Amino acid sequence: VIVLFTVEAARRYLGTWGVVAASVLAGLVDLDAITLSLASMSGRALPPEAAAGGIALATLTNTAAKAAYAAWRGDAGYRSGMVAILGAAFATGAIAIFLFGLKPWG
Predict the structure, then answer these.
(1) With 0-12 CB in 10 A as exposed, 13-18 as middle and 19+ as buried, what is 29?
(2) Is the dihedral of CA 17, 19, 22, 28 positive or negative?
(3) Of the candidates 100, 1, 2, 9, which has an alpha carbon nearest to the alpha carbon of residue 55?
(4) What is the DSSP letter of 42?
(5) ∠ CA 64-50-34 to the nearest 5 degrees?
(6) pTM of the entire structure?
(7) What whole-number distance in Å separates Cα of residue 21 and Cα of residue 69?
(8) Measured in whole angstroms, how far is the alpha carbon of residue 28 from the centre of its chain?
(9) Greatest alpha-carbon span in the chain
(10) What residue ranges in the chain does DSSP mark as E strands?
């Protein structure tokens, strides 16, 4: 509920850039809340393309955050493996966003 309220407030006062900011901030810690919030706003208060782009952006942010946590807290073997795997996932996601033309900023 808090994320839904925050996303709605960000959208109202900052427009689609507010959705981008909320997606990035929420993606640092969790994906469930931002995904449900944007999906519920899709087609009603937010264009479906912007909602999908926000979810994709939150996913990329979450992936980057996990790679950073692994690099920071893991030993050398764990760090290199996780950063390689999550780096490949991030690159694949970024390419998909580009190919599908998802633009959370409108």
Answers:
(1) exposed
(2) negative
(3) 100
(4) B
(5) 50
(6) 0.88
(7) 21
(8) 8
(9) 47
(10) none
Contact criterion met (CB below 8 Å) for 18 and 11: yes
Using the predicted structure, report yes or no on whether residue 106 has a pLDDT greater than 70. no
Cβ 16 vs Cβ 105: under 8 Å: yes
DSSP 1: -
Condensed to tens digits (0 to 9), the pLDDT of residues 40-74 reads: 999 888 888 889 999 999 999 999 999 999 999 99
For 30, list phi and psi in degrees, rounded to 5.
-160, 155
Residue 105 has pLDDT above 80, yes or no: no
DSSP 51-101: HHHHHHHHHHHHHHHHHHHHHHHS-HHHHHHHHHHHHHHHHHHHHHHHHHT
Q: Return the axis-axis angle of helices 16-27 and 48-73, rounded to nearest 10°.
A: 30
What whole-number distance in Å separates Cα of residue 55 and Cα of residue 37?
9
Token pair of 98, please?
A: 């580009």
The SS3 assignment for 75 reads coil
